[in-house]
Each structure stands twice: as structure tokens, then as C-alpha cells.
Amino acid sequence: MAATPAPPAAPPKPTWDPNRPEPPFPWLRPTIRIRLTLLYGGMFLIAGILLLSIIYLLAAQALRTGSEPLFKIVEFNDLKVTSNDCPGVNNKLSLTEFNDAISACTDHQRQVALDHLLSRSLLALLGLAVIAFAFGYAMAGRVLSPLGRITRTARAVAGSDLSRRIELDGPDDELKELADTFDDMLERLQRAFTAQQRFVGNASHELRTPLAINRTLLEVHLSDPGAPVELQQLGKTLLATNERSEQLVEGLLLLARSDNQIVERKPVDLAEVAAQAIDQVHAEAEAKGVEIRSTRAPAVVQGNGVLLERIALNLVQNAARYNVPEGGWVEVTTEVQHGQAVLVVSNTGPVVPAYEIDNLFEPFRRLRTERTGSDKGVGLGLSIVRSVARAHGGHISARPREGGGLVMRVTLPI
């Protein structure tokens, strides 16, 4: 007998969160714009230094400090000389001393001229470098502006808005080709995603009618007091199976519906949503010996109340069902942290390895195995929670709790 194939591995999760806030100082990031600015300014600075060095060397060679003087005084009688720049030149010197003083003064003036040329050239180079860096930063921003549009569109798409397009104008260059390719990919993704949602919705709707008819027929047969015991037992089994199929269909409908962005939003208090979920699960938890305690502070968000209630209900139900046999508890907390509404559901339960956390959010999967064979649910609870949270612009995270169990944290924008 052939071995049963292993279930497909869960796809890798994206490491970038589109809802992650921007860093506090974005200009300190080593972005492409900053790197291009440094490249443009650095190249200009290097070229300016080379040009200044060449000019300085040519000027020094032309002035030739230390070379033979251009002229000499061979004889002077009754010559009176005065100079503010060369005080050493006066009438008290001999002819040779006078010529030497003239030569030293000329060399000094040449060196002063070279020093002035170097210092003023460096100041001019520094000013031009600042202008070059500013101009390079502006030009880099202009050149990279299409990439900014592509990035903003990609972020919108990551938030489940597949209708966005870049529609980049301008010359037919590499950036426009990239934008057009990205638009074509988005078009194909939207068509595939819409077709998938339509198929799931239509199939789920088509299945609801025969399942409802089956449930009615089974309930009618079970209501017959003269039915044999075997038939009664079979009817109860079939009714439980039919109920499970109805739950699966409802879960698929809700999953297909929650994958879209929420268009109509109303104020919803997570504290009230959590209270309703606790009321619905209270009887089941009490039957299992699980204590439910809560600390609910007001946390109002804009969204769909039915879908948000499904988040709390699924989390509290899972926390109560997957718990320890004795002395278990579930804790539900709602609060506002850092401008976001937070719903936290923690519970006691079996030890969950950290590397198994991502598998819990996949449809029809549970810890180390598929969930399709479990009598605790249809395996769509956490998948629905994640889809609803994403549709509201939020996200859900899970971490193992010390001693066993999980801590589920849902964060939604206010």
C-alpha cells in the first residue's frame, strides 16, 4: 500500500510588513538617493581636487620660486628705494646685498601668491562641492521618483489593494519598462485573485442549499420516535457530519469575503466584541473546566463589526478548545497601545514549538498535522482571523507561552 503523501509545506512568510511604521529618521537610511548623491558629489569633489592640484602645479611652475631673478641691479647712484611688502630693501645695502634682497622679496611674493591661490581655490571648491551635493540630491530624487511610485503601489498592493496601478508616464526607458511589467503582473494577479474568490463564493453558495436540505431531512427522521436505535445513531452521525460541512462552507465564505479590503467601516469597540465572544464560548469553556478571565479597556476601531467579532470568537474558541484537561484558563485583554487597538488572547495548553507557529495560520492545518481530521473545528479559524485582520489594515502575531499554550496578539489601526 502506497504511503500517504505528506501535506504541502507552508509557503514562506514575507519578512517585510507593509503596516510597519517608517523609521524616525528616514534621511539617515542608506537609501539609493543618498548613495547616488554621495557618488555624484564625491566624483565632483575628486575632479575638483585634481583640477585644483593641476592648476596649482602649473602656477608654481610658471612662477618658479627659487629660480634666477628676472633682473639684477648692476649699478645705482643716488637711488632711493622703499617698499611696504619688502622692508628689507633700502638704500643702506650694498649692490650685492640689494640684489639678494630683491630676489628674496620676489620669491616671498611668489609664495604668497601661490598660498592665496590655494586657499581661495579651496574655499571655492568647498562652496561648489556643497552646491554639487545639493544638486546631486535633487537630481537623484528626480531620477528615482518613478521608483517611489512603484514602491508606493507595491505597498498598496501588499495591503490587498490589487486594483492599484503605477501607470508611469515619461520616456520609454528602463524604469517605464519596469513599471509596465509590474502593471501587467498586477493585472494578472487581480484576475486570478478575483476568479479564485468568485469560485470559492459560488461553490460555497451552491453547497449551502443541499446541506440545508440534508440537515432538514435528517432532523425529520430523527424526530420519528418509532425509528430503530441503529437508524437513530446513524442519523446523529450524519447530522454531525453535515453540521461540520456547513461550518466548513461558512468558513470558506467568510474567508473569501475577508480577503478583500473593508469598504464600509463603522466604529467598533473591541471590548464589546470580546465580551460577546466570551459570552458565546462561556458554556463550552465551563464544560471543559476552563476559566475565562478578561481585562477589557475601550479600544474603538473603524471596521466591520461582524468580521471583528469573528476574530475574537475564533481566538477565544481555539483558546478554550486547545487547552489542558484540568485547571486551564483563558485570558482576554483589550487596550490601546501606541495609537493602535490591541486584542490579546492567551491560554494554557500544550507546549507549542516556535517553529510551528506559522503553520497554525494555514488553512486546514494544525500542530504537526492536518486539522481536517479534528473534531474541534474545520481548520479555518486562525486563517480567517489573519484574513480579517489584514482586511482591516492590521496583523496578528503569535508566540509560545512559557509552560504551554499561546499568546495571540491582534493589532488594528484606530
Automatic annotation (TrEMBL):
> Which residue ranges does the record assign to the Histidine kinase domain?
202-414
Pfam families associated with the record: HAMP (PF00672), HATPase_c (PF02518), HisKA (PF00512)
Superkingdom of the source? Bacteria
Principal EC category = transferase
> What reaction is this protein's catalytic activity?
ATP + protein L-histidine = ADP + protein N-phospho-L-histidine
Q: Does the keyword Cytoplasm apply?
A: no
Task: Enumerate the GO terms in the molecular function aspect.
Answer: phosphorelay sensor kinase activity
E.C. numbers:
2.7.13.3
* One GO CC annotation: plasma membrane
Region (Disordered) location: 1-22
Where is it localised?
A: Cell membrane; Membrane
Annotated TM spans: 38-59, 122-140
Q: Give start-end ranges for the coiled-coil region(s).
A: none
Chief subcellular location equals: membrane
HAMP domain boundaries: 141-194
Keyword terms of this UniProt record: Kinase, Membrane, Phosphoprotein, Transferase, Transmembrane, Transmembrane helix, Two-component regulatory system
Specify the protein's topology with respect to the membrane.
Answer: Multi-pass membrane protein
Q: What is this protein called?
A: histidine kinase
Q: Which organism is it from?
A: Streptomyces griseoaurantiacus
